[in-house]
Structure prediction request, 371 residues.
Amino acid sequence: MIPLLCPLIILGILGCADMKAALTVEERPSQLLYNVGYKVLDFKFRKKNQKETLTVAVWYPTAAEPKLHSYGGSTAGRVAVDAALLSEKGPYPLLVFSHGYGGSGLGAVFFTERLAAHGWIVAAPDHRDRYSAVRIRTGQLKEFNRQGLWKHAKELATSGPGNREKYLYRLDEMKLVIDRMVASEKFSKVIDGNRIAVGGHSLGGYTVLGLCGTIKKRKDSRIKAVLLFSTGAGGYLFKASELATVRVPSMLFLGEREEKQLRGSETMAAIADKIYRNLPAPKYFLEIKGAGHFSFNNRFSDTRRAKLLSGNEQQFDVIRRYSIAFLEKYVAGKKDGAKILEHSDPMLVRFIKETSLEPSNETKRSTEHSH
Prediction:
């Protein structure tokens, strides 16, 4: 299974979705509170006496008129590039999002751009992974080490808690983004330091859980919630006892088509169960109908293979709606959209929630909706 899975990892990394699609019924223009600005920042820092740069994509509310913008390939959205921040409506909550291994800060544009339209500042770095297929400033790289990426993805998929130290650089980069965003001249006055959340896809799930208490020395008390898109690494790189130390609300997604895929000797379904079971309430688990591991990524091209691997607009829609409702309730403190969290959706194979600190029948994997 692993030799079969790793080429899919590479192909999925190359995927980015066509964002020219229309808004959903649930989010017509009248319900999107803000126009969205977009800016690319370069954070300079030193590591082992070497000058380094971390490139970060940032979406934020603006009064400027948005225009169709290509992020690379067929991935497009509607943003006002380098527009002025709408500061008078702040302060805004902040989400920092961590992409999967070898991917890019643009990996979840379908979600990050829309969250900003709801009054959030969203920052997503290009992690400095050993191998990368996509970058914020260039889109898909014309030349990259496919064999090296494949080999390292295979190594990652068979790793355990004892191997995670080599990926701690990602935690450093996420902390750097939070620190620089809340201190930056442009954003510091409009970011609410008491309303900060993190999210991540795949290895990004490990990255953000590492900041939420699983690694005691790395815990960032500023984080108020964690959003997890299909993360095997968030389970196999942590022990159950470490996951149980997290003390913030969580929402975990899994794709229906990845249930039986292996990460080492465990299936993704078993890993998701381990993560959800050990995280504290309030917590949510959502399994997306027909989705795979890369249904949480944008698609780079419209080839048949890319379409099969990447998400479609129906899947993006349900991921967006529940993710935004979760963040709005538990971080922004808004009641708007809270009803979404009370019920399942036809696009969900499973919807499990525990909103009380007291044990409930729902933690025994009961479901409100199933197909």
Summary: Confidence is low (pLDDT under 50) at residues 1-30, 358-371. The chain has ten helices and 15 strands.
